[in-house]
Design brief:
Length: 368
């Protein structure tokens, strides 16, 4: 992907030059990896008018976890251990006679910003803003391929768990087993902390597993994701344990499934972010669950598990083709439990078959 990384840096360089900065300092790890192919711990990218430099404290390992920098980027190690690569970058910019440097103010700490000011007091620091994040929204086919493989791994791990005996096992044990299976099937690791929720805990967004044991008749909701070559996907499913579902469980599941389907069907190029949220939210709100719904019905995925776009009521913007997002409505009934259904999809035009579903584990309400 060296050519792809170089093209991304060229687009960013053009944006910087249009705003009056010949150089830029990229410090957010996901942005560094997007532009160079690698994000060694603590590394920063100095985007120059003639040369791009990856500054890091130790030589890049080149493994799948942190990536491999492309050949067009010069790797420079810090002269002293324990130094700040961003400060070294400011020294390089000053020595080269640059007058301004665009920085990611939303990522820099106050202390780091002060350090840059102290070593380069005459350097004009401008805000790069979310320029790199904006470039990251639309994925190329190689990025989508990584997400697709990650989704296949997550589907495999979840499918194997469903074939095992679940009654009597704790949420924590099941979450650890899922994360082990992700790695066994080729993931770099879990995309986020795996959520396993049973009984009254089920349906909670971001539930952290506890020592509660799975019981017959429980709802079991699971949300997990895999990292593959830095790219992160997400899947969430809800099942019933050990017996035929109760009427209230079937009714709640069908409701959330209808909301999720409405959200998925609204994923077309040109659709407003808020319209996707509204499509899913309306189904649940109409059934009397509006007061307890999450803040958003989905979000973008990529090098981070929660990135733009945000599919939320007040979100501004419209979907483009080749944008991967989640659609993840859920309802939790306090003291009883609930349902979450979560898929990762890629926005595609209708001429190409409509949204591409990456996570394909069945959404049928199974009794395990």
């Amino acid at each position: 992907m060296s050519d792809a990384h170089a093209a991304r840096r060229t687009r960013l360089r053009e944006r910087c030059q249009a705003s009056g900065s010949a150089t830029a300092l990229v410090t957010r790890p996901a942005n560094v990896r997007y532009l160079t192919g690698a994000a060694p711990r603590g590394a920063v990218l100095l985007l120059g008018a003639a040369e791009d430099v990856l500054l890091c404290g130790a030589p890049p390992r080149g493994d799948s976890f942190e990536g491999r920098p492309d050949d067009a980027v010069r790797v420079q190690l810090l002269p002293k251990p324990g130094g700040d690569p961003a400060v070294t970058a400011a020294d390089l910019v000053t020595a080269a006679g640059a007058e301004s440097l665009a920085v990611e103010e939303h990522h820099l700490t106050v202390a780091r910003h002060r350090a840059l000011r102290s070593v380069a007091p005459r350097l004009r620091l401008t805000d790069l803003g979310g320029a790199v994040e904006q470039l990251r929204v639309v994925k190329d086919e190689e990025e989508i391929s990584c997400l697709r493989i990650g989704a296949e791994i997550a589907d495999q791990a979840l499918g194997e768990l469903l074939e095992s005996i679940l009654v009597g096992r704790t949420e924590r044990h099941l979450a650890l087993e899922l994360e082990r299976r992700l790695v066994d099937h080729g993931a770099d690791g879990a995309a986020f902390a795996t959520s396993v929720a049973t009984g009254p805990n089920s349906g909670r967004r971001g539930h952290l597993p506890t020592d509660r044991r799975v019981e017959e008749g429980d709802f079991l909701s699971v949300c997990l994701g895999a990292v593959y070559r830095g790219y992160r996907c997400e899947i969430g499913r809800t099942f019933v344990i050990g017996t035929s579902p109760a009427d209230w469980q079937i009714e709640l599941y069908d409701l959330v499934f209808a909301a999720q389907r409405a959200g998925r069907e609204s994923l077309v190029p040109g659709a407003a972010y808020r319209a996707v949220d509204r499509a899913a939210r309306h189904v649940l709100d109409s059934a009397g669950h509006g007061a307890d719904l999450p803040a958003l019905m989905g979000h973008g995925v990529g090098l981070e598990i929660d990135e733009d776009p945000q599919l939320a009521p007040a979100a501004m913007g419209k979907l483009d083709a080749c944008v991967p997002v989640t659609v993840e409505p859920g309802v939790h009934l306090p003291g009883r439990g609930g349902v979450r259904i979560d898929d990762t999809l890629v926005v595609r035009p209708e001429a190409d078959g409509g949204p591409e579903l990456l996570t394909i584990t069945t959404k049928e309400l199974l009794a395990l």
